[in-house]
């Protein structure tokens, strides 16, 4: 992708290509049966603020709640010790690596 010749913004893009991003878009599973994460819910790892949710909704397949979030790369690497503050309550959360898919339909068929 970097061999496209000159284009507007190439110098700025080239300067960023080898830098680690400040935040990574990540899928979270949240232990919350009565509320879902929405926009800008704070995410903590211990006492440290490590990101914010961007959207969320119920996990109809497995229960609980799912949220997309921007996290610091260290937290996005597979942290299981996260919490999301939803409606003033800290709720346990973990990073989901990959997609929540059951391609063979085993859960549905018991």
What would you note in describing this structure?
It contains 3 helices and 6 strands; from the N terminus they run αββββαββα. With 110 residues, the protein is mainly β. Strand 3 and strand 4 (65-71) form a beta hairpin. The longest helix has 7 residues, at 10-16. The termini are far apart.
Give me the secondary-structure topology:
Elements (H helix, E strand, L loop, with lengths): L9 H7 L7 E7 L11 E4 L2 E11 L6 E7 L1 H4 L5 E5 L2 E8 L9 H4 L1
Antiparallel strand pairs: 1-4, 1-6, 2-3, 2-5, 3-4, 5-6
The gyration radius over C-alpha positions equals 17 Å
Assess the beta-strand content as a share of residues: 35-45%
Distance between the termini: 45 Å
Work out the helicity level.
10-25%
Low-confidence stretches: none
Helix and strand string, N-terminal first?
HEEEEHEEH
Extended strand count: 6
The general outline is globular
Arithmetic mean pLDDT: 88
Number of helices: 3
Question: What's the quick description here?
Answer:
With about 110 residues, the chain is mainly β. It contains three helices and six strands. It is globular and about 55 Å long.
List keywords for this structure.
110 residues, six-stranded antiparallel β-barrel, 6 strands, single chain, mainly beta, 3 helices
């Amino acid at each position: 992708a970097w061999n496209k010749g000159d284009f507007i913004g190439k110098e700025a893009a080239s300067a960023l290509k080898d830098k680690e991003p400040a935040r990574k878009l990540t899928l979270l599973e949240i232990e919350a049966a009565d509320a879902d994460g929405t926009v800008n819910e704070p995410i903590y790892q211990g006492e440290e603020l490590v990101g914010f949710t961007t959207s969320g909704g119920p996990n109809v397949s497995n229960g609980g709640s799912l949220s997309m979030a921007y996290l610091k790369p260290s937290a996005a690497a597979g942290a299981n010790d996260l919490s999301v503050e939803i409606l003033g309550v800290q709720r346990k959360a973990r990073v989901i690596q990959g997609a929540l898919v059951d391609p063979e339909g085993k859960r549905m068929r018991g």
